[in-house]
Write a structure and sequence with these properties.
By secondary structure, the protein is mainly beta. The protein contains 1 helix and 5 strands, in the order E-E-E-E-E-H. The chain has a 5-stranded mixed barrel with strand order 1-2-3-5-4.
């Protein structure tokens, strides 16, 4: 499930986020999604050298543990993604 707010995340569930690299701190980094920050434990920092990245992982203890990461094109329409993700968060039973 795509999320744009960490408030909806539950431990041991799989989530997908799309965001911009905000900060690197040891073996974790912070991705910015809209006005929210997500802490991600990454495997290979080289995969985050793009304006936008898609990360899928398992959420535990406030950290999304990366399982998959994809670099997205710099012209990715982030505003359209935010609209879609907002709908999926509000209507979880449909999506």
């Amino acid at each position: 499930m795509f999320v744009i707010s960490p408030n909806v995340m539950l431990d041991d569930e799989t989530y997908t986020i799309i965001g911009e690299l905000n900060e690197i701190d040891g073996d974790c980094l912070t991705l910015k999604v809209n006005n929210n920050l997500f802490k991600v434990k990454y495997k290979d920092l080289e995969e985050y050298k793009s304006k936008y990245v898609l990360v899928e992982g398992i959420y535990r203890g406030g950290v999304l543990n990366e399982e998959l990461v994809y670099k997205l094109e710099d012209d990715f329409n982030f505003n359209n993604f935010l609209k879609l993700a907002s709908l999926t968060e509000k209507q979880r039973e449909i999506f």
